[in-house]
């Protein structure tokens, strides 16, 4: 076989190309840009990577942003074997960093090294999410209301927990956030950045407390070429809540749950009962009950001091009241005689 000399060094080769050593020597192993730019949000520290804004709980230091941008921009030649690349920041101004890259590899069995220096510009701006947040952007409003009453503190606090939970934890999605909340006459309004998030709040509240929600959408414009609707979720929590004392079918009962059906304790018999589709009438709430003293007990009845009149009255003694003369019992004032209620719901 004829031997043709390497055009560079004259070493014998088979086809007259560069010999392996000259090839390795001439090859640019490292392909690095002269300059790289990182868009970073000056408000939240999110930055653009692979064309999209990242979500990071903790902003990255400038050095790490610059180094990772350079690593993303550097390519090694396909013939480089066992490459080792070291990237480090050489110098920094507030928005311009100089980053060095050193590469070592083997090409056709010959050790080569290469280096580059990249100027990294930090382009500080406001990310779309921060722009939306600061601009008061919202796509849904959840109106927390209750039938015939104001929502309780427990209910409004729970609604806020759901809203912030969905925004923060449940959807690891920067575009889901609580825009603002307002206490209004008759309840609470929660503004959220997506309609789905608003619906989740409405759904969770009615699952937990009962009641219903309605939605109504208003066309407000366009977003990414699609019609943008703002949806109002009107939550109506049930009129009666646990702790309410109501009259159902002529009997006083204590409401224990009203999420799907009315669950209650009969205040005369102590029996647990469940009602569907009834129209209870409000008698009061156990928090308005007062302690009073038992004067005497006779069978299913007891004489007690009526806390509102200080007169001795006879009331029935339900099974849940295990009281003797001189004991304290809890009575709820009603239109007629006061009503004994369980002590434990104090
Ligand atoms: Zn050669
Ligand atoms: Zn931001």
UniProtKB/TrEMBL annotation:
InterPro entries: Nmd3, Nmd3_N. GO terms for cellular component: cytoplasm. It holds the Pfam family NMD3. Signal peptide: none annotated. One of its GO terms (molecular function) is ribosomal large subunit binding. Residues 6-237 form the Nmd3 N-terminal domain. PANTHER family: 60S RIBOSOMAL EXPORT PROTEIN NMD3 (PTHR12746:SF2), NONSENSE-MEDIATED MRNA DECAY PROTEIN 3 (PTHR12746). This is NMD3-related protein.
